[in-house]
Design a protein that fits this description.
Length: 144
């Protein structure tokens, strides 16, 4: 069996339909991002007063009407993720600042049948875009 830390790391990567759940102490776990992709509440509970969120999803991108039969399911998940994030921000106590860093990239719904999971050819471009956009944001919004 995996050491406990390794099991937690594996569980955080266990995306349903792609990877099986990971058993820890008799319980089965999937990626927590399905339920709470931006755990603002947890950060507040741990005492954070200023939170910077590097969101790797599509929170900053507008949703568009579905055009393919499978897109309503993806859009429904995205609506749920955004609702959870907005609710967590709304419930943050006074004095807690939450900043959503821009990704610097357009991330759209793609046809999952066309996704090349091993294709990392755009990774550098995406990282560079996120770095540049986040740096600019922090230069204007982060207090020392």
């Amino acid at each position: 069996m995996w050491p406990r830390r390794s099991s937690a790391l594996l569980a955080s990567s266990a995306v349903p339909t792609l990877f099986p759940p990971v058993e820890i102490d008799g319980e089965h776990f999937y990626d927590g991002g399905l339920v709470d992709s931006v755990p603002v509440g947890r950060a507040v509970a741990l005492g954070a007063e200023r939170i910077y969120v590097l969101q790797v999803g599509r929170i900053e991108q507008p949703l568009r009407p579905p055009t393919k039969f499978w897109e309503p399911a993806l859009i429904a998940v995205e609506i749920a993720r955004r609702h959870r994030f907005v609710s967590a921000n709304d419930q943050a106590p006074d004095g807690v600042d939450v900043h959503l860093l821009p990704s610097g990239n357009d991330v759209a719904f793609d046809d999952p049948r066309q996704v090349k999971w091993a294709d990392m050819s755009e990774t550098t471009m995406l990282l560079d875009g996120a770095y540049a956009a986040s740096t600019e944001y922090l230069d204007h919004h982060a207090s020392p």
